[in-house]
Protein backbone atom coordinates (compact mmCIF):
# COMPACT_ATOMS: atom_id res chain seq x y z
CA UNK A 1 0.00 0.00 0.00
CA UNK A 2 2.84 2.39 0.90
CA UNK A 3 4.62 1.65 -2.39
CA UNK A 4 1.42 2.31 -4.35
CA UNK A 5 0.92 5.64 -2.57
CA UNK A 6 4.49 6.77 -3.33
CA UNK A 7 4.23 5.82 -6.97
CA UNK A 8 1.15 8.03 -7.47
CA UNK A 9 2.77 11.18 -6.05
CA UNK A 10 4.23 13.70 -8.47
CA UNK A 11 7.23 15.94 -8.06
CA UNK A 12 6.99 19.53 -9.20
CA UNK A 13 9.25 20.35 -12.19
CA UNK A 14 12.58 21.68 -10.92
CA UNK A 15 12.93 24.62 -13.30
CA UNK A 16 10.21 26.36 -15.33
CA UNK A 17 11.85 29.82 -15.51
CA UNK A 18 12.35 29.76 -19.28
CA UNK A 19 8.71 28.92 -20.10
CA UNK A 20 6.23 31.54 -21.29
CA UNK A 21 3.20 30.12 -19.49
CA UNK A 22 0.68 32.72 -18.30
CA UNK A 23 -1.80 30.36 -16.61
CA UNK A 24 -0.74 27.35 -14.58
CA UNK A 25 -3.40 25.13 -13.00
CA UNK A 26 -2.07 22.08 -11.17
CA UNK A 27 -4.66 21.87 -8.41
CA UNK A 28 -6.03 18.64 -6.96
CA UNK A 29 -3.07 16.44 -7.77
CA UNK A 30 -0.54 14.85 -5.47
CA UNK A 31 2.38 17.23 -5.95
CA UNK A 32 4.86 16.84 -3.12
CA UNK A 33 8.11 18.63 -3.96
CA UNK A 34 8.95 22.22 -3.13
CA UNK A 35 7.87 25.04 -5.43
CA UNK A 36 10.88 26.13 -7.49
CA UNK A 37 11.42 28.64 -10.30
CA UNK A 38 8.24 29.37 -12.20
CA UNK A 39 7.57 31.20 -15.48
CA UNK A 40 8.52 34.89 -15.07
CA UNK A 41 5.31 36.38 -16.54
CA UNK A 42 2.73 34.10 -15.01
CA UNK A 43 -0.67 35.69 -14.31
CA UNK A 44 -2.57 32.85 -12.62
CA UNK A 45 -0.96 30.21 -10.40
CA UNK A 46 -3.13 27.53 -8.82
CA UNK A 47 -1.34 24.78 -6.91
CA UNK A 48 -4.16 24.21 -4.43
CA UNK A 49 -5.14 20.88 -2.93
CA UNK A 50 -1.79 19.14 -3.20
CA UNK A 51 0.81 17.94 -0.68
CA UNK A 52 3.30 20.82 -0.92
CA UNK A 53 4.95 21.10 2.45
CA UNK A 54 7.98 23.37 2.24
CA UNK A 55 7.86 26.92 3.65
CA UNK A 56 6.57 29.44 1.14
CA UNK A 57 9.39 30.50 -1.17
CA UNK A 58 9.42 33.38 -3.59
CA UNK A 59 7.12 31.44 -5.90
CA UNK A 60 7.61 33.68 -8.91
CA UNK A 61 9.22 36.94 -9.92
CA UNK A 62 6.16 37.88 -11.97
CA UNK A 63 4.82 41.34 -11.23
CA UNK A 64 1.79 40.35 -13.36
CA UNK A 65 0.41 37.76 -10.91
CA UNK A 66 -3.31 38.37 -10.31
CA UNK A 67 -4.32 35.05 -8.70
CA UNK A 68 -2.28 32.95 -6.28
CA UNK A 69 -4.01 29.88 -4.87
CA UNK A 70 -2.11 27.52 -2.58
CA UNK A 71 -4.95 26.43 -0.29
CA UNK A 72 -5.14 22.92 1.17
CA UNK A 73 -1.48 22.03 1.15
CA UNK A 74 0.86 21.39 4.06
CA UNK A 75 2.88 24.60 3.78
CA UNK A 76 4.67 25.70 6.95
CA UNK A 77 6.43 28.84 8.15
CA UNK A 78 5.70 32.54 7.72
CA UNK A 79 4.29 34.42 4.75
CA UNK A 80 7.51 35.79 3.26
CA UNK A 81 8.29 39.45 2.49
CA UNK A 82 8.74 38.39 -1.15
CA UNK A 83 4.94 38.25 -1.47
CA UNK A 84 4.92 42.03 -1.15
CA UNK A 85 5.97 42.44 -4.78
CA UNK A 86 2.58 41.18 -5.99
CA UNK A 87 1.04 44.64 -6.25
CA UNK A 88 -1.49 43.59 -8.90
CA UNK A 89 -2.77 40.57 -6.99
CA UNK A 90 -6.59 40.32 -6.99
CA UNK A 91 -7.01 36.93 -5.30
CA UNK A 92 -4.88 35.33 -2.59
CA UNK A 93 -5.83 32.00 -1.04
CA UNK A 94 -3.42 30.41 1.44
CA UNK A 95 -6.08 28.82 3.61
CA UNK A 96 -5.85 25.36 5.16
CA UNK A 97 -2.08 25.21 5.61
CA UNK A 98 0.27 25.46 8.61
CA UNK A 99 1.30 29.11 8.25
CA UNK A 100 2.24 31.00 11.41
CA UNK A 101 3.31 34.40 12.64
CA UNK A 102 2.05 37.85 11.77
CA UNK A 103 1.16 39.02 8.29
CA UNK A 104 3.98 41.14 6.83
CA UNK A 105 2.92 44.82 6.83
CA UNK A 106 4.43 45.30 3.36
CA UNK A 107 1.39 43.41 1.98
CA UNK A 108 -0.25 46.86 2.03
CA UNK A 109 0.96 47.25 -1.59
CA UNK A 110 -1.87 44.90 -2.71
CA UNK A 111 -4.45 47.71 -2.60
CA UNK A 112 -6.40 46.35 -5.60
CA UNK A 113 -6.97 42.94 -4.01
CA UNK A 114 -10.57 41.69 -3.87
CA UNK A 115 -10.29 38.25 -2.24
CA UNK A 116 -8.15 37.20 0.74
CA UNK A 117 -8.54 33.74 2.30
CA UNK A 118 -6.09 32.85 5.07
CA UNK A 119 -8.34 30.67 7.21
CA UNK A 120 -7.29 27.52 9.07
CA UNK A 121 -3.66 28.40 9.74
CA UNK A 122 -1.87 29.53 12.91
CA UNK A 123 -1.48 33.22 12.04
CA UNK A 124 -1.10 35.51 15.05
CA UNK A 125 -1.01 39.20 15.94
CA UNK A 126 -3.77 41.78 15.86
CA UNK A 127 -6.18 42.59 13.05
CA UNK A 128 -3.79 43.63 10.23
CA UNK A 129 -3.76 47.44 10.05
CA UNK A 130 -2.63 47.55 6.41
CA UNK A 131 -6.06 46.22 5.38
CA UNK A 132 -7.63 49.63 5.98
CA UNK A 133 -6.61 50.78 2.48
CA UNK A 134 -8.12 47.73 0.76
CA UNK A 135 -11.34 49.44 -0.29
CA UNK A 136 -11.88 46.99 -3.20
CA UNK A 137 -11.88 44.01 -0.84
CA UNK A 138 -14.98 41.84 -1.34
CA UNK A 139 -14.06 38.73 0.67
CA UNK A 140 -11.91 38.57 3.81
CA UNK A 141 -11.53 35.22 5.56
CA UNK A 142 -9.24 35.23 8.60
CA UNK A 143 -11.15 32.55 10.50
CA UNK A 144 -9.52 29.69 12.43
CA UNK A 145 -6.25 31.42 13.32
CA UNK A 146 -4.77 32.91 16.50
CA UNK A 147 -5.48 36.57 15.85
CA UNK A 148 -6.14 38.68 18.95
CA UNK A 149 -7.14 42.16 20.07
CA UNK A 150 -10.26 43.85 18.76
CA UNK A 151 -11.73 44.98 15.49
CA UNK A 152 -10.25 48.36 14.51
CA UNK A 153 -12.18 51.64 14.26
CA UNK A 154 -11.45 51.80 10.53
CA UNK A 155 -13.26 48.51 9.76
CA UNK A 156 -16.15 50.60 8.40
CA UNK A 157 -13.91 51.88 5.58
CA UNK A 158 -14.05 48.46 3.89
CA UNK A 159 -17.40 49.33 2.33
CA UNK A 160 -17.11 46.81 -0.53
CA UNK A 161 -16.92 43.77 1.79
CA UNK A 162 -19.60 41.18 1.08
CA UNK A 163 -18.14 38.28 3.10
CA UNK A 164 -16.30 38.63 6.41
CA UNK A 165 -15.20 35.57 8.39
CA UNK A 166 -13.37 36.11 11.69
CA UNK A 167 -14.59 33.19 13.82
CA UNK A 168 -12.34 30.86 15.86
CA UNK A 169 -9.71 33.45 16.75
CA UNK A 170 -8.86 35.16 20.04
CA UNK A 171 -10.58 38.47 19.33
CA UNK A 172 -11.94 40.44 22.28
CA UNK A 173 -13.46 43.86 23.01
CA UNK A 174 -16.69 45.33 21.70
CA UNK A 175 -17.88 45.34 18.12
CA UNK A 176 -17.75 48.99 17.12
CA UNK A 177 -20.58 51.05 15.67
CA UNK A 178 -18.42 51.64 12.56
CA UNK A 179 -19.29 48.04 11.67
CA UNK A 180 -22.68 49.30 10.46
CA UNK A 181 -20.94 51.14 7.59
CA UNK A 182 -20.43 47.77 5.90
CA UNK A 183 -23.55 48.22 3.79
CA UNK A 184 -22.61 45.55 1.21
CA UNK A 185 -21.97 42.86 3.82
CA UNK A 186 -24.02 39.72 3.09
CA UNK A 187 -22.26 37.11 5.21
CA UNK A 188 -20.71 37.67 8.63
CA UNK A 189 -19.11 34.92 10.69
Summarize the structure.
With 189 residues, this protein is mainly beta.
Percent in strands: 15-25%
Mean pLDDT over all positions? 87
Total strand count, please? 13
Number of helices: 1
The secondary-structure element order is HEEEEEEEEEEEEE
- Radius of gyration, in angstroms, nearest whole number: 17 Å
Strand order in space, largest sheet: 1-2-3-5-7-9-11-13
Distance between the termini: 41 Å
Enumerate the spans where pLDDT stays under 50 for 5 or more consecutive residues: 1-5
Sheet with the most strands, sense and barrel status: 8 strands, parallel
Helical fraction? under 10%
Shape descriptor = globular
Helix and strand composition category: mainly beta
List keywords for this structure.
eight-stranded parallel β-sheet; 1 helix; 189 residues; single chain; five-stranded parallel β-sheet; disordered N terminus; globular; mainly beta
Describe what you observe in this structure.
Helix content is 3%, strand content 21%. The protein contains 1 helix and 13 strands; from the N terminus they run αβββββββββββββ. It has one helix spanning 2-7; strands spanning 23-25, 44-46, 67-69, 76-77, 91-93, 98-101, 115-117, 122-126, 139-141, 146-149, 163-165, 170-171, 187-188. It has an 8-stranded parallel β-sheet, with no helix packed on it.
Amino acid sequence: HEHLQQSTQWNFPTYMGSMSLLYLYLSSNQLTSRITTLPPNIIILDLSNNFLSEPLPSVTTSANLTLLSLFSNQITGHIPQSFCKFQGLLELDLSNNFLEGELPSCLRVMEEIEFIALSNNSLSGEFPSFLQNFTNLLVLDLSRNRLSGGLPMWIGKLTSLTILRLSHNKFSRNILVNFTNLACLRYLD
